[in-house]
Design a protein that fits this description.
Blueprint: E1 3-5, E2 24-26, E3 31-33, H1 49-53, E4 59-61, H2 69-80
GO cellular component, one term: cytoplasm
Keywords: 4Fe-4S, Electron transport, Iron, Iron-sulfur, Metal-binding, Transport
Pfam family, one: Fer4_7
């Protein structure tokens, strides 16, 4: 499942540089996560790095992008060019 950033985001800028896939960018009002690029850090780390650094816990699973661990790994391999 891809992640999403809720409207509780305080725009602290700590999540964007942590994303190994470049899925996080500044949106109109808060940061946003591109579900096509979000692998929840599968293929890179054991845990989602943006979630680890978020000081307000506003990064949650996006229910509109239900993906299994295998789906996330396949997405990682596609993004990485493997």
């Amino acid at each position: 499942m891809a992640l999403m950033i809720t409207d509780e985001c305080i725009n602290c800028d700590v999540c964007e540089p942590e994303c190994p896939n470049g899925a996080i960018s500044q949106g109109d009002e808060t940061y946003v996560i591109d579900p096509a690029l979000c692998t929840e850090c599968v293929g890179h780390y054991e845990t989602s790095q943006c979630v680890e650094v978020c000081p307000v816990d506003c990064i949650v699973k996006d229910p509109s992008h239900d993906e299994s661990e295998d789906d996330l790994r396949a997405k990682f391999e596609r993004i990485a060019g493997n």
